[in-house]
Specification:
The complex is a heterodimer of chains A (170) and B (199). Chain A has 170 residues and is mainly alpha-helical. Helix content of chain A is 84%, strand content 0%. The chains are: A mainly alpha (170), B mainly beta (199). Chains A and B meet through α2, α3 and α4 of A and α1, β5 and β8 of B.
Chain lengths: 170, 199
């Protein structure tokens, strides 16, 4: 009897922390004000993420992956707002908090992408500028040299021509 | 051909070549305005994702499905919101001539991002959970949209001309405006008419 109780206690003691890690006890008992605050916080992060994504996109970065992740946050935000609308403040706060967490990760990645895209754009602009300057210089110089050579050839050809007396035909 | 004419040909050719070589940098410094029209699309499809078999005669307790879709052609990635609203025949629709949305409160909403040239589509299921009347007038008490239950008291009178109690489920498209940091009605809406026929 005693051994059986000890074994049960041991099994419980071993499995309880495991169960806690799999099913975390998250207590959400939000009131309307808390839910509103959570939604506003989630909205702010999604809006700021979108701003950063737009800047990365205008700098030439590929934002499709980021937008896909940001969509997850947007779905959660919409869910939070719908839950709030039907009076499910716990659900609203939970969805808004999840949205915020996703948003924080996306914002970090978006900032990284924006920095990378801006660096690449600067680099691209620099190389394009150098290429254009070199190209234009070569063309201008080649044109001048070509023109001078052509002019020399032209005069030589004129000078080598033998004048002919043309009869008036009368 | 005399030397003056040759010189003109040389100058024009050099100028053209210079412009061709410098074109990428010129286009970066002087942005060329594009003439393409910027717009968004909004559509509803039936349960088979085709423009057919839309729910019309709806019974209480039965589940119906439509698909709502949006296409982005505004020139950059955009942040959209679709409001799902429900009205009877007398309640207001959006006014497209002065770009104002319907004054009815939204029941459900979608939020999503679309890259330029991309599309988005999502299913929407709805069920009339509780309806009373159905003789001379009808009153919708509870409507479920995508597992969210909305309580209301939306009346509809018998329409003798079309013989039914008519309601409209409609979708408004809103676009996030970075300058004002808020969603603005994007002057697009679509809807389906529903004739509530009882259980």
């Amino acid at each position: 009897m005693f051994l059986s109780a000890c074994r049960s206690f041991l099994i419980f003691a071993l499995l309880f922390p495991l169960a806690l890690s799999v099913f975390p006890l998250e207590a959400y008992a939000a009131n309307p004000e808390e839910a509103t605050l959570a939604i506003e916080r989630a909205e702010d992060i999604v809006f700021s993420c979108y701003q950063v994504v737009l800047e990365a996109e205008s700098a030439g970065g590929d934002v499709s992956v980021l937008l896909a992740r940001l969509n997850d946050a947007a779905v959660l935000l919409a869910q939070a707002r719908v839950s709030y609308g039907i009076g499910d403040f716990d659900g609203a706060a939970r969805s808004a908090d999840l949205c915020y967490e996703t948003g924080v990760e996306v914002r970090l990645e978006a900032r990284g992408l924006r920095r990378l895209a801006m660096e690449e754009a600067t680099q691209r602009f620099r190389w394009m500028m150098i290429g254009s300057i070199v190209g234009v210089t070569i063309i201008v110089c080649a044109s001048l040299v070509g023109w001078l050579m052509f002019k020399r050839y032209y005069y030589r050809r004129i000078l080598e021509m033998k004048p002919e007396v043309v009869s008036s035909g009368s | 051909m005399d030397l003056e004419e040759y010189r003109t040909i040389f100058a024009v050719t050099s100028l053209l070549l210079t412009l061709i070589v410098a074109a990428p940098i010129i286009s970066m410094l002087i942005p060329i305005p594009t003439q393409t029209e910027r717009f968004s699309e909004l559509w509803i499809l039936g349960p088979n994702r085709m423009a057919e078999n839309y729910p019309f005669n709806v019974r209480v307790g039965e589940e119906y499905q439509v698909f709502v879709g949006v296409g982005n052609h505004v020139g950059s990635s955009s942040y959209y919101m679709v409001y799902v609203k429900f009205r009877n025949q007398t309640q207001p629709l959006p006014n497209l001539s002065n770009s104002t949305p319907s004054s009815l409160p939204p029941l459900y909403e979608f939020q999503f991002f679309i890259t330029d040239g991309g599309t988005w589509e999502a299913p929407l299921t709805f069920t009339f959970l509780e309806v009373s009347g159905l003789e001379y007038s009808c009153l919708v008490h509870r409507l479920m949209i995508n597992d969210a239950v909305f309580s209301m008291d939306s009346p509809s009178k018998w329409d003798p001309e079309n013989e039914g109690f008519y309601y409209q489920l409609f979708f408004e498209l809103w676009l996030y405006d970075v300058t004002s940091r808020s969603f603005q009605f994007h002057n697009r809406f679509v809807g389906i008419w529903l004739n509530v026929t009882g259980s």
